[in-house]
Amino acid sequence: MYQREPSQATSTTNLGHFIGGQMVNRSTRTLSIEDPATAKTIGIVELADSSTVDEAVNVAQQTFPEWRYTPPAKRARVMFKFKQLLEDNADEICNLITQEHGKTLEDARGELQRGIEVVEYACGIPELLKGEHTPSVGTNIDSWSQFQPLGVAAGITPFNFPAMVPMWMYPIALACGNTFVLKPSELDPSASMFCAWLLQDSGLPDGAFNIVNGDREAVDALLANPTVQSVSFVGSTPVAEHVYVTGTKNGKRVQALGGAKNHAIVMPDADIDQAANATLGAAYGSCGERCMAISVAICVGEQTATDFIGHLKQGLSKLRVDSGSSPSSDMGPLISHRHLTRVRDYIDVGIEEGAELVVDGRDLVVSGHENGHFLGPCLFDHVTPAMRIYQEEIFGPVLCIVRAQTQEEAMKIVDEHPYGNGTCIFTRDGEAAHFFAENIKIGMVGINVPLPVPAAVHSFGGWKRSLFGDLAAYGPDAVRFYTRRKTITERWPAGGVREQARFSFPS
Ligand code: NAD
């Protein structure tokens, strides 16, 4: 658990909120933070009520004029400095991520790097905010547009990327001139608290970036607060839908990214060894707790399935499960006992539904971490689209194999799934790959790339029930999301020329 002064950090220290440039303790409701590898309490986080949320929003609103009128080039300099401090403090941030989330340190480094890339993008804000100018749209009339910040922007984030997903939001929102209130996941809040101090050290005015720790109560208070202009949400689909419906009803601009069930299609001509290795990382990395994790592989043809499963089983026999801080670990624990129980329940459901559990990780015990929330990798074969383990997001180290006879049949299965975040095809056939990319009804598509997470210069967003709203996260969409276009038409009449009143529409 992170405190500004490391010497103050004890297992009973309350992590409060970050408001107006300092950590404040306000709440009587609290939650224990666990190390998922040991199930031991490593800290306590406060859970904000609506008065604390309103306090943070008011501070952000009061800071808005100062930050909004700070020239974009100066705002960019804060981002340059922030990027440097993130790199200088990467080890400490990654240790916090691993301690509270459980993922391996190497995985935490990858997450932080992807977050830093969004900060790098935000460094280009003077260029990104350039408006459009047209001289002489009419006689003596010029027209230009500019992109103005919204005001107070809010972000609500999930547990699975405690540093990166918040960084999908606040660097671009701040660079655009907004002030920000972040509500991180209550399960692993420390990485964001650390970043709040780094932003302050980067020269961001106090009050421009605030954190309220909390749960549903804090989220509902943000959605109800009339000063909050926009809400960016990332999390599960039921909550994303609630946030989208309530936020838009309350007049806010909302982007709400939800859950996923990402399919890989394995074609008969694919390099099966390469496809299996890529799928292993994409399905079991971070214990399957990624919104872009491959959770279904559709094998086209019986022989493809036999070969692919053979390679997967071989790879899984070598996969090392251990605490995320162990240098030899490939996969750490799940986030909580509650989530472990949920994933194990899905395995029981799959067996009851008639799927064949060809790799069973339920008996795994990690020596020295017997109480940790560990589950070994699980692989189901003969899964059908009618089964719950196919339809619902499991969010654990569980891969489902579905069999199809043709590419068209496989693509139809993908298209009919209600989620539409990411997908991938493994093939050596350019025509098959092109047909797939052109026609599949999914937001992010990989060709021999199992985790097609767009680079920071593009935007991240799924289709169907994986994204509510029109604009995706980070990249150019985020610049549009966090700004309002204003178009100005101006005329400076030439000296002495007087116009008569005209009652027809100006043309
Ligand atoms: P979650 O929906 O439980 O929580 C997300 C956020 O919402 C948290 O800050 C939480 O405090 C808050 N919250 C939880 N329940 C709420 C409620 N009833 N009302 C209001 N707020 C509530 O999600 P999670 O378990 O933290 O994260 C995992 C989920 O996030 C998975 O479904 C995963 O697919 C999804 N996810 C999606 C993306 C994406 O880009 N589409 C990225 C990462 C994670």
pLDDT below 50 for ≥5 consecutive residues: which ranges?
6-12
Q: Judging from the principal axes of the Cα atoms, what is the shape?
A: globular
Major β-sheet, in short?
A: 7 strands, mixed
Unique ligands: nicotinamide-adenine-dinucleotide
Helix fraction bin = 25-40%
Structural overview:
- With 507 residues, this protein is of the alpha/beta class.
- It has helices at 50-68, 72-88, 90-101, 105-122, 125-128, 164-175, 190-201, 216-224, 237-249, 272-284, 302-318, 337-353, 388-391, 407-416, 430-439, 475-481; strands at residues 14-15, 17-19, 22-24, 30-35, 40-46, 132-138, 141-149, 152-156, 179-183, 209-211, 228-234, 253-257, 262-266, 294-300, 356-359, 378-381, 398-404, 419-420, 422-426, 444-447, 463-464, 467-468, 483-491.
- Helices cover 38% and strands 22% of the residues.
- The strands form six sheets. A seven-stranded mixed beta sheet has the order 15-16-17-14-13-19-20, sandwiched between helices. It has a six-stranded mixed beta sheet with strand order 10-9-8-11-12-22, sandwiched between helices.
- α3 packs across α4, α3 (90-101) runs antiparallel to α7 (190-201) and α4 runs parallel beside α6 (164-175).
- The radius of gyration is 25 Å and the shape is globular.
- The termini are far apart.
- The protein binds nicotinamide-adenine-dinucleotide.
- Nicotinamide-adenine-dinucleotide binds next to α8 and α9.
